[in-house]
Specification:
Cytochrome Bc1 Complex, Chain D, domain 2, single chain
């Protein structure tokens, strides 16, 4: 009886101690995995939603060079947030905001904007005399080709069939993935990660004017084919493909007159 009483006393003393211990497997106050909408870390949000197109460090991606200080000086916070939340029509940039059908809350969009600014915006770089991010008026397509020949052709080729050293930007499949704003942004801010100059260095000896940028952006998009990617190279009509040609009528295979319809 005394032994049992002693064991009971020891157990009673141990229970409060054990209750305060962080034992392995002990449930914590919150969920083991945070709910998606609770994640506000810029690194996590950028890595999961942005890095695939814009690059792990904001550069060398297929899409806009976010780490370019000139781009960061060119676009304001409201516009940057709008692009992230609502996407860019006519491009592969989707809307990530929940109101646009995306996965992110307003607070998460704010976190991405703030993180991009904190990491890549440089206080000593300003847009200066650069044309505005948005065009003030529609471009004049009839004037755009001359601007292209003057500012773009020496690197990108005179036409889609003659690629320049920097690759063709007149290829229909490429044009299907961008819009006028994409062209304008790239011309003004450049893409230093891939050697694309900014608006001051496309034309030898002088900077491009706002009207020139507006007109060439409109002209480039006007070259987009109705069915991008068509026709495929080396395609032939079915009747000309081997084994697909129709037999010519001969005396041996011509229908008899008895079977011909009047």
């Amino acid at each position: 009886m005394n032994v049992l009483r002693l064991a009971g006393g020891v157990l009673a003393l141990a229970l409060p101690v054990l209750a305060g211990c962080d034992l392995p497997g002990r449930p914590q106050g919150g969920p083991e995995v945070p709910r998606p909408e609770a994640v506000t870390s810029f690194d996590v949000l950028y890595g999961e939603n942005c890095a695939g197109c814009h690059g792990k460090n904001g550069d060398h991606g297929a899409a806009t060079n976010l780490a370019n200080p000139e781009y960061q000086a060119l676009i304001d916070d409201v516009s940057l947030r709008d692009v992230i939340a609502n996407g860019e029509k006519g491009t592969l940039m989707p809307g990530f905001g929940s109101k646009a059908g995306g996965p992110l809350t307003d607070a998460q969009i704010d976190s991405i904007v703030q993180g991009i600014r904190a990491r890549w915006k440089k206080d000593n770089v300003t847009a200066g005399e650069a044309p505005p991010w948005k065009a003030a008026h529609p471009g004049d397509v009839s004037k755009g080709q001359a601007v292209y020949a003057m500012a773009c052709a020496r690197c990108h080729g005179q036409d889609a069939q003659h690629r320049g050293s920097a690759g063709s930007i007149l290829d229909g499949s490429f044009l299907a993935l961008i819009n006028e704003q994409t062209v304008r942004t790239t011309i003004i801010a450049g893409r230093p990660d891939i050697g694309e100059p900014d608006w001051r260095n496309h034309i030898p000896g002088r900077a491009m004017t706002d009207d020139e940028i507006t007109n060439v952006s409109a002209w480039l998009i006007a070259q987009r084919p109705a069915t991008p990617g068509q026709p495929y190279p080396n395609t032939q009509p079915a009747s000309e493909l081997p084994g697909e040609s129709q037999p010519k009528a001969t005396e041996g295979n011509r229908p008899s007159k008895a079977n011909e319809k009047p």
